[in-house]
Each structure stands twice: as C-alpha cells, then as structure tokens.
Amino acid sequence: MRKLIKDLFYFSLLSIVIYITLVVISGQFLPGPLSKNLIYKKSIGFADLRFNEADKINNIDVLVLGSSLAYRGYDPRIFQENGFKIFNLGSSSQSFVQTKFLIDNFLETINPKFVILDVYPRQFENSGIESSADIISNISLNSNILKMVLQQNDLRTYNTFIFSFYNQYIRSNIEYKSPNLKTDLYIPGGYIENITVNEKSVNIKDDFIDVRADQMKAFESIISIFKERKLKYILVQSPQTINKKKSYVNLNYFDSLFFEYGNYINFNKSLDLKDELFLDDNHLNQQGVNIYNRILLDSLKKYPNLLFE
Fold it and tell me: Which residues cross the membrane (predicted)?
C-alpha cells in the first residue's frame, strides 16, 4: 500500500511538471488559435502601463472602475481642469469579479476620496475569464491574483497564471513594449484617447441580459467595501449609441437594481448622443468624452457631499 501511495505521489508530481512545461511551450511557440486554453494578453488596452502607473499613485480625488467603457470614457485632463486628480483603473471586459480584485489590490494605496463605478449591465453575465487573463498578463503576480484564479476555477486562467509566472520570474529579462496603435493614445491617469468617428450605427437585434450569481456576489461585495470604508461613491451608466441601448430589453430591471445600492445615474436615459460621437456602438470617441465628462461633472454637483462639497 505504501509503495502504491509513493508511486501515485511521484506520478502526480511528474504529471504536474510535464503539464506546466507544456503550458510554457504552448505560450511561447504556438499561435493563439492553437492554444485556446491559454489567454495571454500582454499590453491589451495598455493594461501594463495602467497597472504600472497605479502602483505609483496615492491619495487621489477620484478613482474610476469598470470595463473599457471606463478607461475610454473618463478623461483625467477634463477632471484636472475642474480641480480633481483622477485615475482610471478600468480594464478590457472587466466584470465585477475583476473589479473586486482591483479594489483588493489597489484601493488601500491609491486611497481615493471618491469612486465612480461605471456599471455596464453586461458585466453581470460576463464570465470574466478574458478580463482575468488581461489582468494576470499585465500585473505583478501576488496572493490576490491567485485568490481570483482559484475563485474562477477555469483552465484558461490557471494556464495564463502559469505562463505569466514563467514570464515574470523565469523569463524576466524579456521586455515587452505596448502596442503602437495609430488610433489609441495612452494618457497618464489610465485613460485611452481615440478620435475615430463611428460609421453609421446599424440596427442591433434585441438582447436579454442575464445575471450570474458569482458576478452578483462580487458586485455586492464591492458596495460593502465602499460602505465599510465610508468611501463616497456613485454608480454610473455611461452613454452608448441609440441603437445599442435600444437593443437591451431588460434595462429597467438593472436601473431598479442599481438604485438599491446607492446613488446612480443612467446617462443612457438622459443623453441621446449622435453616432459621430462614438468610435463604435459602445465607446465614446474623444469628442464624445469631452461632452460626456462635462455633463457628468455638472450632474455630480446635484449630489451634495460626494465629489463637490
């Protein structure tokens, strides 16, 4: 019996070593389509620059959290003109699970006075796997990352964690450069400027948004953290194209939900911005951001004791 247990132990150990080796080889030599269970996204959405900058800032006025709608929708330069230092901690396809991780990882050191949580209803039905891969690929690995990986319990995040560990601690002499994109420009403060003008928006089929239990739990945890820290916050739905927002058939449910958890503004109801103010159906271009951010700042004045005191 002892020999069997010993043999099983060595077999398991050898299997783990072989598996890790195969993950590393796949990440280094196989193109993306041939390594579908490994999502390594170095520098997507300038995440590396954003997280590196986040490590160095503290004591700011406003922290923005959310998906690409956040890092493409809140311009630090406009907030600075109004006397507020802002940092944008959005990330591509960020779901509430990843927002919770970023709060655990950065909130203590960034120490904001006020938080804008850009809430996009699709965050509730998003598995968050791609967003986790984006974060794992571009941030220094730590216990909070491992906790998120174990919580999601998905082969793709395990593999991405393994390959990121290899790149950070074994292949650490390799330098990566952020993409030199003609349309995107990284602005200090975590923001991505884009001046692209959207072609005419097409009709979009009706879409019903579901709510995943793990995302709802993460969202509630986020709000609890804000309240426990007595941190001022507001939930905001940033504007999308008219056709895009019309496609969601159960948005009223999410309006009711968000109102239950604090101050909330849905700019998809109060603003009908023209298509040329967007770079696609979801994201504002720079001209649109200029308009939206000034309207947002004026709107926040109506909420005493939040941002304006």
Answer: 7-30
